[in-house]
Amino acid sequence: MTDRIGWLGTGRMGAALAGRLLDAGQQVTVWNRTTAKTVPLAARGAAVADSKAQLGGLDVVFTMVSTPADLEEVVLGPEGLLSGPSVPDVLVDCSTVSGEVSARVRRAVAGRGAEFVAAPVSGNPDVVAAGGCCIVASGPPTALERVQPYLAMAAKTVVRAGDADQSRLVKLCHNLYLGMMVQALVEVTTLAEKGGTDRAAFLEFLNGTVVSSDWVRNRTPALAARDWTPTFSTELLRKDFDLGLAEARSLEVPMPVGAAVHQLIQAAIGAGWRSEDFLSLYEQQARNAGAGES
Predict the structure, then answer these.
(1) Could you give the number of structural domains in the chain?
(2) In this structure, what DSSP letter does residue 58 have?
(3) What is the pTM of this model?
(4) How far apart are CA 48 and CA 181, in angstroms?
């Protein structure tokens, strides 16, 4: 592939994704608000841009940021990607943001004669680095065709969801389900534990049954050890529940389980688990049950 690639946002997820393109032999120019976070990628061969607007002269630019406001800032802000004289042919956003913000950015990008692809990612940085993540993408067919090879370099699975911003809702549905699943997992774990079964033993049993999954098997050692080293923080999960439940309201879709879990996530953040891995929902559940002190 001969496109000149830019990458805006080299936090843990962005760095892992950009690293996949570098490992595949692509030329990548990176920018991050905290320049120090670009150093490991520079050591792997990436060029480092002095500004966001500098990436506008490249062919395809990817973004990976934390919140909808961050996406608007890096693309539409006074010093954003669209602020310079040139813009990329295609902007690919891999963040998890609202459909509303995505549509606003898409319109602005189109106004500069470029195309926009929404391509949120399922997988934590370790999964991404190992080539095991999944991407759901939506946008104009011509743009999707052009960036498909790069998405395939980053992910084991790339699914097209539509011609506009449908992929945003797909990813939010995924994260809603993930949060509901983890809450269910910590509830039954706490119940078994309070009834006298060792937490690790219960999880070992669960992982041998048909209700387990690769994700549960990979994450239950951390749950057994109460290791809340963040792969995806409780605060970021709350952000996605905020966005997902807002979409549900706009589409008149009842989400009784999701709404209840939303409040439990909020309670966990209020109790001090904001920056920990979202498996720390266990701590709030165990506290409510008077269990899990060992």
Answers:
(1) 2
(2) S
(3) 0.90
(4) 40
